[in-house]
Every structure is written in C-alpha cells, then in structure tokens.
Amino acid sequence: MYKYEWLLCPVCDNKTRVKIRFDTVLENFPLFCPKCKQETIIHVKQLNMSVIKEPDAKTQSR
C-alpha cells in the first residue's frame, strides 16, 4: 500500500492541490498555493520537500 500526502505550501502551511506518493521525486517543480497566491520552486524526494531560493531579477542599467 502506498502512502499519499498533500504538499503543503512552504509560505502559509496550507494544503495545495498536489498530492504525492512516497516514491515521487520532483525537481524544480513550481508549486502554486491557491490560498496565498504565491508560486515557489521546490524539490521533493521521499516526501521531504526543500525550497529553492531564486535570486530576484536585477534591473539593467544603460
């Protein structure tokens, strides 16, 4: 029997619309939270989630 879990938003800790199994592996997955309306890039392996921090875009000077 496989174990399923909901992915929780790393910002507000609410359930998202994504359910994963124990053997699911996600890399560079854009996780969207319908409650806080934020998208974060995550890695998931064996139900352990890690958030990928992306640097903010810098404005170009002329």
Core attributes:
two-stranded antiparallel sheet; 62 residues; 3-stranded antiparallel beta sheet; single chain; 0% helix; mainly beta
Describe the structure.
The protein is an all-beta fold. The protein has one domain (4-51). The chain is built from no helices and 5 strands. β3 and β4 (39-45) form a beta hairpin.
Structural class by secondary-structure content: mainly beta
Q: What is the spatial order of strands in the main beta sheet?
A: 3-4-5
Total E-strand runs: 5
Count of discrete domains? 1
**Residue share in helix:** under 10%
- How many helical stretches? 0
Major sheet attributes? 3 strands, antiparallel
Q: Per the principal axes of the C-alpha atoms, what is the gross shape?
A: elongated
Q: Give the distance, in angstroms, between the N- and C-terminal Cα atoms.
A: 60 Å
Secondary-structure topology with pairs:
Elements: E1 4-8, E2 15-21, E3 25-32, E4 39-45, E5 48-52
Antiparallel strand pairs: 1-2, 3-4, 4-5
Short overview:
The chain is 0% helix and 52% strand. It has no helices and five strands.
